[in-house]
Write a structure and sequence with these properties.
It contains 18 helices and 22 strands. The chain has 596 residues and is of the alpha+beta class. Among the domains are: 95 residues, OB fold (Dihydrolipoamide Acetyltransferase, E2P), CATH 2.40.50.140; 160 residues, BirA Bifunctional Protein, domain 2, CATH 3.30.930.10; 129 residues, 2-Layer Sandwich (Gyrase A, domain 2). A hairpin with a 4-residue loop joins strand 18 and strand 19.
């Protein structure tokens, strides 16, 4: 085997005349005839052009080079030569080539079902790519994403080590606890009829580590939730998990802001601007979303005071609802570029997110035209003064209960931003703070935690915990980058009495809390320090850093949208012997059909 001296992406003109050894895969072959063959050899770092010519080697070597096929795994020994007229400025190694003097073929590749070409991948189904993942991962873009994931992990460990965090592994086989999603469960052979659960997060364990005196904990860990996958989420995902003792919200935010700034500077070569803290209520009222994308304006503006004068039933009916409101968004200079088709797309977006529709008008020198213009005309002057609409703009409206109105209009805002090409370029981050502690679920007739049941309420709201839970704010915080939540956390409850009070609000009896969380409550009795933390979604952060909108592009071996691994064909059946050993009986659809 040839021991390489360089990788395939690092040779430059300063290595001219050096003897080098390279290993990799055949990327392309160009047989020029007359004893001249060009091979591009590729590894994860890049591509180098190798030339086999009769002037530098014997005919047998040229013939062997001519026999190569794409994706053959080879080694090369040769001398670096400068390329002048034939140089390729688009490649890092484009100003040199290696004159081949020796060729070793480690293994021949059969005709591959897919080729690791970027342009071919664009037209290839994701199912085919995932089935042949070993070839798909050879693509330079995939290698680049894996490298970014590695660089982020390495930076994370170095950064938090410097701040005194200790990396501690937490168990994967735990007890099932209610954390908002379904657990994956694992049967126990030793304890028949009993089950382990795979952790949705290390939340309880990291709190116990704080009680145990670890002071600052960090882990890059796997989390598993039995929920439907989507473009930016997998049932199996990775998070950067952190917890600190003797801390408060300001300190957590300060350290984690420094971490994000370091990530952006080291991995993207840029400085983040101001990172504001935005109260949840303001985020919802202004952007219609608790993860606002600050790269563009298009703010939601409340016009509930003007709406009654329109006589528009859509507006007046909304205002009659509990917490009803009417809001508007100005789409600047959109009148020329927005066809009726684009307006219909926004209307469809509003309906998908619960609104009955999306009234709109086009603003001209003479005031509103089109859509709901006849209703808006009576308030045209006041509306123009209040929201700053100008001729050539389009105004879209939302009218419903507050939650439906802001949520639907927030999604319209994002869709409009894309249609107006406002989301391209730039990096903007913010912290969202002062979340509601609880959310009322009508169909279950109970309160649920907005974050999780271990999040502490703000100290000033403790007196209203039982009397007015809907008005209690939490010490929770989310970090948002370009409209995506990349991290979320909170100050935790360290007083067992307060923890029990929160469980009571959530409708858990003392018996239920002891059964499910007794070990945590027990630990909190023995001198628990004030503590808090955060978890960053590593997969989602890598997605944003590498510019992809598909989480499966940044995970080496992901599941499909339906949760299957096409490469190893999982989930799959378990043989009868294993089932018997676990004392499990499987009631399959096939068995039911046979009995029928």
């Amino acid at each position: 085997m040839i021991k390489r001296t360089h990788n395939c992406g690092e040779l430059r003109v300063m290595e001219e005349d050096q003897d080098v050894r390279l290993n990799g895969w055949v990327n392309t072959i160009r047989d020029q005839g007359k004893g001249l063959v060009f091979i591009d050899i590729r590894d994860r770092w890049g591509i180098t052009q190798v030339v086999f010519e009769l002037e530098a080697c014997d005919e047998a070597l040229v013939t062997e080079a001519r026999s190569l096929r794409r994706e053959d795994c080879i080694g090369i020994v040769g001398k670096v030569r400068r390329r002048d007229a034939s140089s390729n400025p688009n490649m890092g190694t484009g100003h040199i080539e290696v004159v081949g003097g020796e060729l070793v073929i480690y293994s021949r590749a059969q005709n591959p079902p897919i080729l690791p070409d970027e342009h071919e991948a664009e037209n290839m189904s994701e199912e085919v790519r995932l089935r042949h993942r070993s070839l798909d991962l050879r693509r330079p873009s995939m290698q680049s994403r894996l490298q970014m994931r590695h660089d982020l992990s390495a930076l994370t460990r170095e950064f938090f080590h410097r701040f005194g965090f200790m990396e501690v592994e937490t168990p994967l086989l735990i007890r099932s606890t209610p954390e908002g999603a379904r657990d994956f469960v694992v049967p126990s052979r030793v304890y028949p009829g009993k089950w382990y659960a795979l952790p949705q997060s290390p939340q309880i364990f990291k709190q116990i580590l704080m009680v145990s005196g670890c002071d600052r904990y960090m882990q890059i860990c796997k989390c598993l939730r039995d929920e439907d996958p989507r473009a930016d989420r997998q049932a199996e995902f990775t998070q950067i998990d952190l917890e600190m003792s003797f801390t408060d919200q300001d300190e957590v935010i300060k350290i984690m802001t420094s971490f994000l700034r370091r990530v952006m500077k080291d991995l993207k070569g840029m400085e983040l601007g101001q990172i504001p803290q935005i109260p949840w209520q303001e985020a919802m009222d202004t952007w219609g979303c608790d993860r606002p994308d600050l790269r563009f304006e298009l703010h939601l503006q409340d016009i509930s005071d003007l709406a009654p004068d329109t006589g528009f039933k859509v507006f007046t009916s909304a205002l009659e609802k509990d917490e009803g409101c009417v809001k508007a968004i100005v789409l600047p200079k959109a009148a020329k570029s927005f066809t009726r088709k684009k307006i219909d797309l926004l209307d469809e977006t509003a309906k998908i997110h619960g609104a009955g529709g999306m009234p709109w008008v086009r603003w001209t020198e003479d005031g509103p035209e089109g859509g709901a213009a006849k209703f808006i005309a009576p308030i045209a002057e006041a509306l123009q003064e209040k929201i700053g609409v100008q001729p050539g703009d389009i105004v879209v409206f939302g009218a419903d209960s507050w939650e439906t109105c802001v949520t639907a209009l927030g999604q319209v805002r994002l869709r409009a931003g894309k249609l107006l090409s406002m989301l391209k370029g730039g990096w903007r981050a913010c912290w969202v703070v002062d979340f509601p502690m609880f959310r009322w679920v009508e169909d279950r007739q109970r309160w649920v935690s907005e974050h999780h049941p271990f999040t502490a309420p703000r100290v000033e709201d403790l007196d209203r915990l039982e009397s007015d839970p809907g008005d209690v704010l939490s010490a929770g915080y989310d970090l948002v980058l370009n409209g995506s939540e990349i991290g979320g956390g909170s100050i935790r409850i360290h007083d067992p009495e307060v923890q029990q009070r929160v469980f009571n609000v959530l409708g858990l009896t003392e018996e239920e809390t002891q059964e499910k969380f007794g070990f945590l409550l027990e630990a909190l009795k023995y001198g628990a320090p004030p503590h808090g933390g955060i978890a960053f979604g590593l997969d989602r952060l890598v997605m944003i850093l590498t510019g992809t909108d598909n989480i499966r592009d940044v995970i080496a071996f992901p599941k499909t949208q339906s949760g299957a691994d096409l490469m190893v064909e999982s989930p799959g059946p378990i043989d009868e012997e294993q089932l018997e050993e676990l004392r499990i009986t499987v009631d399959t659809p096939e068995a039911e059909t046979a009995e029928a």
